[in-house]
Amino acid sequence: MPWGHRSAETLRDTGHALHALANREDTSMGNTHHPRARISDGTRTRVLRIGVPITALAVIAAGSAQAATAATSAVSHAPTAVGSIAAVPAGATAAAAPSDSTKLTVDVALQPRNGTELRAYAEQVSDPNSLFYKQYLTKAQTQLLFAPSSAEVSAVSAALAAAGLTPGAAIDDSFYIPVQATVGQLKQAFKIGFAGYRLKDGSLAFDATSVPKMDASVASDVIGLDGLDDLMKPATDTKTAGKTTHGKSAPSNSLSSSASASTAAPAMCSGFTTAIDSYLNQFNTAGVDAGTYYSPKSMASAYGYNSQLASGSEGQGVTVAVEEWEAVSHQAVSDYQNCLGVHGKVSYINDNAGTTVQPTATNNVGIEASLDIEAIASIAPRASIQDFEGSDITASFTDADWLNTFAAPVAADSANVISLSWGGCEAGAIDNTLENGQTNTLQLAAVQGQSFFTSSDDNGSEGCNSAQQTDAALSVDDPANSPWITAVGGTYMQGKTSPTVTPWNDSFNAGGATGGGVSIWQSFTSGWNYQAGFVGTGYQNVCGATNGATCRQVPDLSALGDWRSGFPQMYYADGSGYDVIVDGGTSLATPVMAAVTALADSSRGCLSNGPAGFINPTIYNLAKNAKSYAADFQDETTGDNAYSPSGYTGSLYQAAKGYDMASGLGSPKAQNLIPALCAPNRWLGWLFGHSALGQASTHGQQAVDKVISTEAAEAAEEKTR
Questions:
Q1: Is 545 in contact with 472 (CB distance < 8 Å)?
Q2: pLDDT band for position 30 (50/70/90)?
Q3: H/E stretch holding 368
Q4: Which of 294, 397, 518, 677 is least enclosed, having the fewest CB within 10 Å?
Q5: Contact status, residue 296 vs residue 306, Cβ threshold 8 Å
Q6: Which residues, including other chains, have CB under 8 Å from residue 64's CB and lie 6 or more apart?
Q7: 3-class DSSP state for residue 513?
Q8: Secondary structure of 688-709 in HEC code, one letter for each residue
Q9: How far apart are the first and last CA of the chain?
Q10: Widest CA span of the chain, in angstroms?
């Protein structure tokens, strides 16, 4: 996938243009801007901070207008292929195809407006060396500048209707138009067929047999169709010693907690501690804090964010979203908060499909969701948490079901930080339509200043070694493979202060291992590559990168993930009490990093300089300097993530000094990393927030179009001089 690049000369020219615009007199629009972000009651509010390269936008807008003018003279309506379809996984055999009466929901994914500029600005706003670092855009601005226009949505909807379908209202910033139809209707409308398959694990699936086609007049507005197969079933990345029913502890109304006198971190109530000890005794293991499990107090000590909590930075004013495809036990979450004495607001947001299977003490539903919520609450006790619940992962789950929830927190722009502990094997049923849709969402998150974390997988370097795809080959997880997301690996940790940390690999007990490796799908160009200079041991050009490009390497960093030193969790509760486990996996590591970032966003530095946003360019930039690398990260130098129970007999990928694909850059030293994530724009780029385009964006689309047209005319005039 090509990635944009802006030269230093272009940046200088853009900076001059913005500076000139910043100093124009404009009495009709205010120009007082302060680099602050405040979130209240789950709604993010920001003062205007926009540094969009106007000249580039003007050229794009002018080019689009010319193309539209030329197109009006001869509009083709011939069926034209759009997007791609997923490849059938290796080992699948033929089975019955879905009947024509089978009902499906597909999403028609639309191209972003000014897509090239979206990518370029996402790069610049996240780059600590850029003039536009942390010049985040408001939701109104991203919609005006990058969301598909109402005219495009109307045109595509009309084409769908003309093909005999009934499109729904556009969702997720108008990037998707949902369509509910039968297989027979989809066949006729998109000129495709469907086939059935039996996968290696014995489950049944279907897939389209050819790339869908749409009316040529709107084909260029469409990325493709999501939901034409049900091959990929995302899974959670969580591991425990066992998920059997555990003994009940004290009733929830008897829970109580008080903060420790020696730390600002929350303390576990005595009943919970007793229940965890009893749980571990089942496996002939003693309950040892900072040994066989990590309490919130020990976690704060090990990662060094006690000072943040003591200073009053506890996540207040910050919202963290978690993405789930299951229901969660609300009572368990409430009991956990009561036990720790933390009271951050937890909101539950369901999509239209919703979840139908509710948690019980024995069905394992809600374990992932409660882990995510409780881990965040234990680290950032005053942060608000939004639980976005997608539809249950059933036999008919499709990419459309995945993307609708994946994009929801970004479309809502209601969270500073997003945590995702679900994913699928990259070497499985992935296609460009899915990847490009995810990329657009992640780039929007970056320009809005949202930090997005995901798990790197629990199957070691063999990401396809799962229940559905038993494959010992090297593979990473999706969406951890994306260059636009922060992939988090897992570690085994021992000790409260200066702990011993190694990459998680429990091959001995077949207990999982931290995911990592090289992407076969995603790459960087030589012009935009925050991983440049960071080549992990065992790297191979499996993505076919050319001309100085490199493949994406996973993970970016690591946090606690091994269940043998895991997280004490309440996963189910009812009127008689609650059930507990000690949980782990990269599903734990991910919310840990999300919560640490929430502490950063609530700290004085980020309140003054802007939220952390997409942190990858920043953390790799920090790691380029030996002094800051040693201060901000604990480097894991021994171990690997070769997971032998998969059948893999190689030795990739080994931990080593510096970056490696077993632990990424290493584990956070939060006391130093937090202020580093909150560093200001060193170019004083806030001055560039007073642009005419930025001011116009508060007045609506017509005002934006007028400014872009004016700049396009001025640029054309300059060329003739």
A1: no
A2: very low
A3: helix 367-379
A4: 397
A5: no
A6: none
A7: strand
A8: HHHCHHHHHCCCCHHHHHHHHH
A9: 38
A10: 83
Asked if 417 contacts 384 with a C-beta cutoff of 8 angstroms, the reply is no
Q: CB under 8 Å to 191, separation ≥6 — which residues?
A: 79, 210, 212, 213
Mapping DSSP to helix (H, G, I), strand (E, B) and coil, where does residue 389 land?
strand
Cα distances (Å, whole numbers) of residue 2 to 5, 6, 175, 206, 551: 10, 13, 20, 30, 12
CA angle 682, 440, 392 (to 5 degrees): 125
Beta strands in 475-549 (DSSP E): 477-478, 486-494, 500-503, 517-524
Residue 576: what pLDDT? 87
Q: Are 516 and 489 in contact (CB under 8 A)?
A: yes
Q: What is the C-alpha separation between 443 and 406, in angstroms, rounded?
A: 13
Query: Could you give the CA distance from residue 31 to residue 51 in angstroms, rounded to a whole number?
Result: 13
Residue reference for tokens 């990058």: 146
**CA–CA dist 704, 58 (Å, integer):** 11
AA identity, residue 426:
E
Residue 466 has pLDDT above 70, yes or no: no
What does each C-alpha distance from 688 to 448, 501, 679, 695 come to in angstroms? Answer: 17, 43, 18, 11
> Residue 256 and residue 267: Cα distance in Å, rounded?
10
Q: How far is CA 348 from CA 126, 191, 328, 354, 524, in A?
A: 30, 40, 9, 11, 37
User: Is the N-terminal amide bond of 167 cis, ω within 30° of 0?
Assistant: no
Nearest to 143 by CA among 707, 701, 703: 701
Whole-number Å distance between alpha carbons of 587 and 325: 14
Mean per-residue pLDDT, 621-625:
98
Ordered alpha helix ranges (H), 220-348: 270-281, 296-303, 306-310, 330-340
> Pairing relation of β-strands 384-389 and 319-324?
parallel
Q: How far is it, in rounded angstroms, from Cα 390 to Cα 369?
A: 11
Distance CA 405, CA 401 (A): 7
What is the DSSP code (8-state) at residue 326? S
Q: How confident is the model at residue 527 (pLDDT cuts 50, 70, 90)?
A: confident
User: Is the preceding peptide bond at 653 cis, omega within 30 degrees of 0?
Assistant: yes
What is the Cα–Cα distance from 634 to 582, expressed in whole angstroms? 24
The single-letter code of the amino acid at 712 is A
Query: What is the chain's length?
Result: 721
163-206 pLDDT, tens per residue? 999 999 999 999 999 999 999 999 999 999 999 999 888 889 99
* 533-to-170, 368, 536 alpha-carbon distances in Å: 42, 35, 10
- On whether the CB atoms of residues 101 and 209 are closer than 8 A, the answer is no
Task: Give the bridge partners for 38, in sequence order.
Answer: 45
**Nearest partner of 328 among 284, 260, 386, judged by Cα:** 386
How far apart CA 342 and CA 360 sit, in angstroms, is: 24
Q: Which of 232-241, 548-557, 698-707 has the lowest mean pLDDT?
A: 698-707
106's enclosing H/E stretch is strand 103-110
* C-beta separation of 418 from 412 below 8 A: no
Question: Which residues fall within 8 angstroms of residue 267, CB to CB, at 6 or more apart?
Answer: 257, 258, 259, 260, 295, 296, 297, 340, 341
pLDDT in tens, 624-650: 999 999 999 999 999 999 999 999 999
Task: Scan for tokens 């030589």, then name that residue.
Answer: 526
Identity at 24, one-letter amino acid code: R
CB 340 within 8 A of CB 269: yes
Tokens at 551, concatenated = 């493949």
CA 323/CA 382 separation, integer angstroms: 19
> How many Cα neighbours within 13 Å face the side chain of 521?
25
Q: Which pLDDT band, with edges at 50, 70 and 90, does 346 fall under?
A: very high
**Cβ distance 384 to 42 under 8 Å?**
yes
Q: What is the pLDDT of residue 240?
A: 73
User: In one letter, which amino acid is 601?
Assistant: D
Q: CA 464, CA 89: separation in Å to the nearest integer?
A: 11
